[in-house]
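Quick one, probably user error.
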């Protein structure tokens, strides 16, 4: 009964078996460099619409993007709201300010400032 030779990658890129020994050399360094340069040359230009769509879909459903957009708008509006509240606070009459007290204005300003 004859055994089939089993091959595996051994040290120094040798294929060994029970009945044969074949030396398999690695591709030359110049071939590897040429392939990398060719791949880079093909990868120039704009990113296609399909790739952008894949990125968007891989990050989550529509709810995630709606939530992200809401947070970004809120972050952009917080400084505007702070300045608006400071304008209201500084433009209030002294009678109105005394009636509401400084705590009222400070609490609202703190709430706007710490929203995000």
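Nope, works fine. Designed sequence:
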């Amino acid at each position: 009964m004859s055994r089939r030779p089993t091959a595996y990658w051994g040290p120094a890129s040798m294929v060994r078996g029970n009945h044969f020994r074949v030396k398999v050399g690695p591709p030359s360094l110049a071939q590897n460099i040429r392939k990398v340069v060719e791949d880079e040359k093909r990868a120039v230009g704009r990113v296609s619409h399909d790739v952008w769509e894949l990125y968007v879909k891989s990050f989550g459903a529509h709810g995630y993007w709606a939530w992200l957009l809401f947070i970004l708008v809120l972050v952009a509006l917080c400084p505007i709201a702070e300045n608006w509240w400071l304008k209201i606070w500084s433009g209030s009459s002294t009678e109105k300010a005394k009636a509401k007290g400084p705590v009222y204005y400070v609490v609202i300003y703190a709430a706007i400032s710490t929203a995000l």
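The longest strand covers residues 14-16.
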